[in-house]
Amino acid sequence: MSRLRSSITSIHSNWQPRADKQKRGRRRPDLTDIPIVDHHAHPLLRRAATQDPARFARWFTESADPQIHTAHVPNLLVYRTALRWLAEWLSCAPTVEAILAARAVIPEDEYARALLRDANIAVLLCDYGYGGNEALDHAGMSGILSIPIYRILRLERVAEELLLVHDTFAEFVDAYDQVLADARRQGVVAFKSIIAYRTGLAIDSPNPTAAEAGFGIVRATVRETGRIRLANKYLCDFIVHRGLAVQLQALPFQFHTGFGDADADLRTANPSPAQFRTLSCGAAGSAACGWPYYRETAHLAAIYANVWLDLSLAIPFATVGIPTMIRDVLGMAPFSKVMFATDAFTMPEIYWVAAKWGRWGVQRVLEELIDDGLIGEDEAIQVARSVFHESATRLYGV
Ligand SMILES: [Zn+2]
User: Fold this and answer.
1) CA of 41 relative to ligand 1 center, distance in Å
2) Which whole-number Å values give the CA distances from 258 to 136, 312, 345, in the listed order?
3) Cβ atoms within 10 Å of 198's Cβ, excluding its own
4) DSSP 205
5) 267 CA distance to ligand 1 centroid (A)?
6) Beta bridge partners of 38
C-alpha cells in the first residue's frame, strides 16, 4: 500500500508517446506546467459503481450497448492506452484487474485528487445533468476534489424535472423561467443544451401552442412508461429559445454538437443549419464541441465573435485522430477561440486520460507549426495557454 501511495504522488507528467521520444532534435515547447480550466465536464460516480472490469470498461465508450462494452471496448485504442498509462502510474500490471486492485487500496478521494492534480486540472465547470442516480452532486464533487468547481445548468434536465411536478404548461413555463432567472445567483456560470441529441440543431422559432401540446404528449408518455425523456421538437425548441431569452444574465451557452450520447443522430447534430447559426449567435457566448463537425464549428468560430470551439469528447476518443482535428481548427479559427476540455464523466481516470491526449495533440501540432517556421516557440506556449485555460477563463468569467 505504501508503494502504491508513493507511486500516486510521483507524477508522470513527462509522459510522451514513444514516437515523439524518437524525434530527437525536434523543438518541444513544454506544455506540462500549463494548468487546465476544464470548462466542460460531468460528475464522478462513487467508486463502487465502477469497481469491476465491465463497469470500468463501460466508460471508455459512448455506446450503451453491453456487447460493445464487453467485446469491443478492449479493442479501442483509447482503452488500451489508458490501461498502459494507468499501470505505469500505479506501478502495476497493465490489466484492468490489476489497475482496479491498485486503485482499490487508495482512498477514493485521495485517488481522484491525485489524478486531477497529475493532469494539472485547476478548475472544473460541471454539468450535473448527466450521470444518473449514482453521480455525485455539487457538494459531493466539491468534497472530493480540492479545486474550484462551478455549475453548468443543462436546460433539458431542468425542463424534465419541472415537467414531472407541474400540471399545466403555464405553471411549467413560469417555474422554468424562475430557475433560469435565478441561475447566476445560484452559482451557475453557463447554460447548456443537448438539443443536438434530442431533436436536432435545426432549431425553429418558438411556437408556444405546439410546445404546449408537446408538454401534454411528454407528460402522457411519462404516465404510461414511468420514464421521462424530453424529445418533443416543439418543446425542445421552445425551452432553448427561452434559455437564450434569459441572456439578460449574459451567461454563456454551451451547445453539444456532433457525437455524444448514444441516442445522438449525427445528421441532426451538425451545427451548420442557418437556424442554429442565427440562434447560437444570439448568445452571450456560445461554445460547441462537435466531432466529426469540428470543421463546421471552426468556421462558426472564425466568423462569429461570440462562438468558441470546444475540443472535448473528440479528445480523448479520437486518439490518434486528435492532431488532425487540432491542425484543422487551429488552421481556420483564431487561436483565442479554440478551447480544450475533457467532457469527462464517471471516473477520475477519464479526466486524466483526456488531459494526456489533449496535451499530446496540442503539443504535436504546435511542434509542427514551429518546425515549419509558422510560429515561434514563445508564441506556441501562448497558444497553448489560450487553449488550455485563458479563453475559458475569460469566456466563463471564472
Ligand atoms: Zn458533455
Assistant:
1) 6
2) 26, 11, 18
3) 23
4) P
5) 19
6) 124
Using CA atoms of 102, 54, 156, 149 in order, give the dihedral in degrees to the nearest 10.
Answer: 0
- d(C-alpha 41, C-alpha 356), whole Å: 15
User: Which superfamily is assigned to 107-396 in CATH?
Assistant: Metal-dependent hydrolases (3.20.20.140)
CA of 40 to the centre of ligand 1 (A): 6
**How distant, in Å, are the alpha carbons of 63, 201, 289, 328 from that of 269?**
17, 6, 11, 20
- Using CA atoms, how far apart are residues 386 and 349, in angstroms rounded to an integer? 24
DSSP string covering 167-195: SSHHHHHHHHHHHHHTTTTTTEEEEEE-H
pLDDT at 359: 96
> CA-CA distance, 310 to 358, in Å (whole number)?
12
Residue 375 has which C-alpha cell? 510560429
**pLDDT score recorded for residue 2:** 37
Indicate the burial class of 133 (C-beta count within 10 angstroms; 0-12, 13-18, 19 or more). Answer: exposed
Query: How much distance in Å is there from the Cα of 196 to the middle of ligand 1?
Result: 12
Each residue of 80-113: b (16+ CB within 10 Å) or e?
ebbbebbbebbebeeebebbbebbeebebeebbb
Half-sphere exposure of 268 (CA within 13 A, CB side): 15
Cα-to-centroid distance, 167 and ligand 1 (Å):
30
Provide the 10 A C-beta neighbour count for residue 319.
18
Alpha helices by DSSP H, listed for the chain, are 2-9, 18-21, 53-57, 66-67, 77-90, 96-104, 108-118, 138-144, 155-165, 169-181, 195-198, 208-225, 233-245, 274-280, 294-303, 314-317, 322-332, 348-371, 377-385, 391-396
Residue 363 CA, distance from chain mean position: 20
Residue 64, C-alpha cell as written in the block: 450503451
Q: Write phi, then psi, for 86 (nearest 5 degrees).
A: -65, -40
Over the chain (398 residues), the average pLDDT of each successive run of 10 is 36 41 61 94 95 94 90 96 98 97 96 97 95 90 95 96 96 95 92 91 92 96 91 95 77 85 78 71 69 90 90 93 96 96 96 97 96 95 97 94
Answer for the pair 306, 284: CB distance below 8 angstroms, yes or no: yes
What does the pLDDT read at residue 16? 45
Residue 277 grid cell: 447559426
* Centroid of ligand 1 to alpha carbon of 67 (angstroms): 23
Residue 134: predicted pLDDT? 86
